[in-house]
Structure prediction request, 91 residues.
Amino acid sequence: MMRKGTMIVLAAALVLLLAVIGGCGGGQTDEAATPPATGDATQLAETHDCDGGCGMKAVPLDKLTEINGKFYCAGCAAKAKTEESAEHPHG
Ligand SMILES: [Zn+2]
Prediction:
């Protein structure tokens, strides 16, 4: 003859088991459906290497200045502008 306490433990274990299986499966599905969103935004942005010789690579275009069809970072853009104006001294 089974004791009432044993039945309750078995019933509780069964409920717990079902909850774990159901919860686990649902959770995994949700995680798999959600795409990883961290770090991709910067890679998707259009980038260009700095042509100024400073060695900067994959600089976002909004950080670059286009001079004569080349892209320069802030530092190199200032130099390039100076050199460009220096090419035409006193007409
Ligand atoms: Zn540069």
